[in-house]
């Protein structure tokens, strides 16, 4: 088949799905790429399957606004084929340091994000509070938590440090922790407004926040592209990196009177619900994983953004709405990570992760400040740094700091814009307990549906639904 004939076929496919504008874009793309192989465009033909919108954002490159799979094998490089088992409606594979998008499918499709939206919550609010700050929880702060929400087990009238609250957000996806931190920030409405403003700064224009915890809400959406941008921004922050890589930690429980008659604050263990970090039945921890966030609601289905390192390369992958729930989103993310590590250098980027507003040329900084936002210069937490903070208990499964501070060169290749944005040291090489999942032994591992795991009542002191967002009475979480 001739090159011109294949281009015409692509144009007809796009025309049927998106109209004349998309067809013109498909015709122009091969010439704009200056001789590089054109992106292979695949539009699903499955009857009844939801289709991406006719017009999607082109932030990061024109190809990222087209429907279907976008990939450009480098001529003569023997690029690996994409896994044919990927069912996610939208996904993206990107180099976390250079910002190059190696491949994507419907990258800008606005979809319900579930608890992956907590990455934006954390990236927005982390710089505001010192982790040793203590807060006493009121009934009003917990009153707005949606029914069926995932909870870490916060109790009114008790005190918690900011560190406790962030561990509740990152490890147990606790909507109760999100609501308490939002109250400390001036309320839900103010927090939602700031999250939307921060999304615009990051270039995450597909994202609209309605509820800061990711609980299903009318009009609340994000995209695989945006969640990847948000994760990349969050990983600039030492505390974000530390919390995202924490496998397990002790969380404050209730105050009880001991045998000696003295009152004592109990603690209970919480475990991360990121199954690529911890492992699960039929799923080994992913070698090199360093975070970041998972989510699930009945409306959104499963969503996940993960960051992992192999050698000197760090990749970000986001997968949204696979055909099955459970561990499927983790398996597909792992397959896309494997593909990305194999394909690096063998494909031509199909786009880039844009830098946030204000992240210009020059050396970056390794701090808890939001990149390029001078307003945060005076809002840096007074708490411990990541290097000196408490590590997850048990030792096994603790992610190690393995990468020296490096600079990200954004807009490489055909995109022609070279700017620098820092990617500090990552907690990498996340693994589960040798010989089995850190959630349990091989003989009796924890699993979805077991007490204390995602979406089911926790048997520990929390006494609430734990883990990633669980179905509530109205099908929300």
From TrEMBL:
Leader sequence residues: 1-40
Organism of this sequence: Streptomyces glaucosporus
Residue ranges, compositional bias (Gly residues): 429-438, 457-466
Annotated transmembrane regions: 399-417
InterPro entries xrefs: Beta-lactam/transpept-like, Peptidase_S11_N
Sequence ranges assigned to domain Peptidase S11 D-alanyl-D-alanine carboxypeptidase A N-terminal in this UniProt record: 83-317
Keywords: Membrane, Signal, Transmembrane, Transmembrane helix
Source taxonomy: Bacteria, Bacillati, Actinomycetota, Actinomycetes, Kitasatosporales
Listed name of the protein: DUF5136 domain-containing protein
